[in-house]
Each structure stands twice: as structure tokens, then as C-alpha cells.
């Protein structure tokens, strides 16, 4: 089973505590999948909106496919996420709690189909971010020391 990671949301782990992750399919138009295969997707400002019946990927930018001419897609249109009803219910219950949100963490191609990994997340406070930076610096310093001993 081949998986090719196309895009990642690098700020997700820094800005949020990721609690539970889900894999979802994305309902796309023809020119969108071609742009995704070329890696022309950005998750920087994207989030997931859930109503009681479905989940939608909002504000993800998929660049227009140059060869599609007049049949091209809207770059920031809402895209339906393909999830089971039970998963949608879990997401719906999670976001009704204070401080919870759903964010996309990465987009990848699995057996030729575009999949998105989404996570229920809780926003970090400033002191949590400082703690994460301090841990990264300590790990980097230990790795540097170990490398110098070799």
C-alpha cells in the first residue's frame, strides 16, 4: 500500500494539542485532484466545519490546474469530507466543547485517492508554546552533544 504525502500542516502541532485523529476522503472536482497530485495544496489557514450531517474542509487552497482552462475550479471552495456517520457524530460532539476545533494535519495519496488526516485539537496557550520550544531546544542540544562525542 503506497502512501505519498502531498502536504502537511506544519504549524498544527505547535499551535494545538492534537487529541484524536481521523482519516477522511475528499470530494473533489477533476482539476482539483490533478493539482493535488502536483503538490499544489496549502493547509496553512484550513479548518474543518461540522454540522450535524456532514464535515467540510474550509479555506484549503488548491491552486488552479493550468491545463484545465475554462473547466477550472474555485481555489478556496468548501470541500465535503467523506466520513462515516459515527465519525461525524464524534467530531460534532467534540467541537461543542469549549476550546475544541478540528484541523487538517496532512493530505496524502493512498492507492491513487486523495485522503486527508484531520485531528480534534485544543488550542495551546502562550506558555505551552514556550514549553514546546524549550523542549525542542533541549533535544537539539542533546543531539548536538552526542554527535560531537562520536
List keywords for this structure.
31% helix, alpha+beta, 7-stranded antiparallel β-sheet, Small Protein B, Chain: A, 4 helices, 150 residues, two-stranded antiparallel sheet
Summarize the helices and strands and which ones pair or pack.
Elements: E1 3-8, H1 12-15, E2 16-26, H2 30-37, E3 41-42, E4 47-50, E5 55-58, E6 61-62, E7 79-82, H3 85-95, E8 100-110, E9 113-123, H4 126-149
Antiparallel strand pairs: 1-8, 2-7, 2-9, 3-6, 4-5, 5-7, 8-9
Structure, described:
With 150 residues, this protein is α+β, with helices and mostly antiparallel strands. It has a single domain, classed as Small Protein B, Chain: A (Beta Barrel), CATH 2.40.280.10. It is 31% helix and 37% strand. It has helices spanning 12-15, 30-37, 85-95, 126-149, and strands spanning 3-8, 16-26, 41-42, 47-50, 55-58, 61-62, 79-82, 100-110, 113-123. The strands form 2 sheets. Strands 1-8-9-2-7-5-4 form a 7-stranded antiparallel beta sheet. Strands 3-6 form a two-stranded antiparallel sheet. Strand 8 and strand 9 (113-123) form a beta hairpin. The mean pLDDT is 88.
Could you tell me the mean pLDDT?
88
- Helix-strand string: EHEHEEEEEHEEH
CA-atom Rg in angstroms: 18 Å
Largest sheet: 7 strands, antiparallel
Uncertain runs with pLDDT below 50, 5 residues or more? Answer: none
Strand content: 35-45%
- Overall structural domain count: 1
Structural class: alpha+beta
Residues in helices, as a percent range:
25-40%
Shape: globular
Number of helices: 4
What is the name of the CATH class? Mainly Beta
Spatial strand order of the main sheet? 1-8-9-2-7-5-4
**CATH homologous superfamily - what is it?**
Small protein B
Oligomer: single chain
Give me the CATH architecture, please: Beta Barrel
Amino acid at each position: 500500500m503506497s502512501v505519498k504525502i502531498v502536504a502537511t500542516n506544519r504549524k498544527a502541532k505547535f499551535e494545538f494539542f492534537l487529541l484524536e485523529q481521523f482519516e477522511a476522503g475528499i470530494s473533489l472536482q477533476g482539476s482539483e485532484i490533478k493539482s493535488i497530485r502536483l503538490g499544489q495544496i496549502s493547509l496553512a489557514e484550513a479548518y474543518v466545519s461540522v454540522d450535524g450531517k456532514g464535515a467540510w474542509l474550509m479555506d484549503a487552497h488548491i491552486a488552479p490546474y493550468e491545463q484545465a482552462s475554462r473547466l477550472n475550479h474555485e481555489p478556496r471552495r468548501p470541500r465535503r469530507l467523506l466520513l462515516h456517520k459515527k465519525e461525524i457524530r464524534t467530531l460534532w460532539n467534540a467541537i461543542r466543547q469549549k476550546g475544541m476545533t478540528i484541523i487538517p494535519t496532512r493530505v496524502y495519496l493512498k492507492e491513487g485517492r486523495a485522503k486527508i488526516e484531520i485531528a480534534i485539537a485544543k488550542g495551546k496557550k502562550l506558555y505551552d508554546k514556550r514549553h514546546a520550544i524549550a523542549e525542542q531546544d533541549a533535544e537539539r542540544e542533546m543531539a548536538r552533544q552526542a554527535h560531537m562525542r562520536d
